[in-house]
Write a structure and sequence with these properties.
Blueprint (H helix, E strand, L loop, with lengths): L6 E5 L3 H12 L3 E6 L7 H5 L7 H4 L1 H12 L14 E5 H4 L8 E4 L5 H14 L5 E4 L6 H5 L4 H5 L1 E6 L8 E6 L4 H15 L8 E2 L10 E4 L10
Parallel strand pairs: 1-2, 1-4, 2-3, 4-5, 5-6
Antiparallel strand pairs: 6-7, 7-9, 8-9
Bound molecules: nicotinamide-adenine-dinucleotide.
The site of nicotinamide-adenine-dinucleotide has 21 residues, from helix 1 and helix 6.
């Protein structure tokens, strides 16, 4: 099967989400970066008379997270102009947009219930057959996939980027036990061609991640898109 990855949606713009978004922008991918809309106004927003429905308020979390990432050292973007490849938005208004994305990466807070709520929303909008992965540090993959459709489970896996993703060569993946051989094939091809993991070293069950099924890869350099 040929699969081209040209558009990646990243859900969660915290420490990892914003940096993963930048990493994909660095390699020429169009990125949609979303986060929650705030439930309360800030003091500044109150002074300005804004409401929770104002677009600037709704995107406040993602805007400030991405801005902070752009100022961080070491730089997450290899060139400032790559920032234009990242579109910002919020889960409430912009989740339907993931329908046109090839790969959705969930990078929200490490909490099973919250991640599962996000997947419920993802399930409403993702196009069947597209990849859906989590940057979880240690929540078992089968628990996160519980309750999801057959197609979701077939295309679901863990893809653990280490911080900072643009610099660290180590990357972990954990195919879903229900789709191990197919998912393994997709992920291996993805890392090998998309992120150009030319000389990879794979280790299972490292000291850091004792959860079974994790593979660890060393990324060499980057390339534009994968054919899987
Ligand atoms: N920080 C690291 O070094 C690191 C490294 C590898 C993997 N991870 C994993 O990546 C994921 C994100 O970690 P992080 O360090 O970026 O966390 P973070 O706290 O910086 O970001 C968490 C994100 O979750 C969002 N969020 C909070 N409450 C939410 C809710 N109720 N619904 C939806 N989204 C919500 C936040 O707005 C934020 O964007 C976690 O699974 C973590 O284990 C983190």
């Amino acid at each position: 099967m040929n699969r081209s990855i040209r558009k990646v949606a990243v859900l969660g713009s915290g420490i990892m989400g914003s940096r993963i978004a930048c990493h994909f922008a660095n390699i020429g991918v169009e990125v949609l970066l979303l986060d929650i809309a705030p439930r309360e106004l800030s003091e500044d927003e109150k002074k300005k008379g804004l409401s929770l429905d104002h677009p600037a308020v709704k995107n406040r979390i993602v805007n400030s997270a991405f801005e902070a990432t752009l100022k961080a050292n070491p730089a997450s973007l290899f060139s400032k102009k790559f920032a234009s490849r990242v579109t910002l938005g919020n889960f409430t208004d912009d989740m339907p947009k993931i329908a046109t994305y090839d790969w959705t990466i969930e990078v929200v807070v490490e909490n099973l219930d919250i991640k599962k709520k996000v997947y419920e929303e993802v399930e409403k909008h993702r196009t069947p057959g597209t990849l859906i992965t989590s940057n979880t540090s240690g929540i078992p993959i089968h628990l996160m996939a519980e309750g999801r459709s057959e197609d979701f489970q077939k295309h679901f896996a863990g893809t653990h980027f280490f911080n900072p993703p643009a610099y660290l060569k180590l990357l972990g993946d954990n195919p879903n036990s229900k789709n191990r051989s197919r998912s393994n094939k997709i992920l291996n091809a993805l890392w090998r061609s998309f992120l150009r993991k030319d000389n990879c070293a794979m280790q299972r069950h490292t000291c850091f991640h004792r959860q079974s099924g994790w593979n660890f890869w060393f990324i060499e350099s980057n390339r534009l898109h994968a054919k899987i």
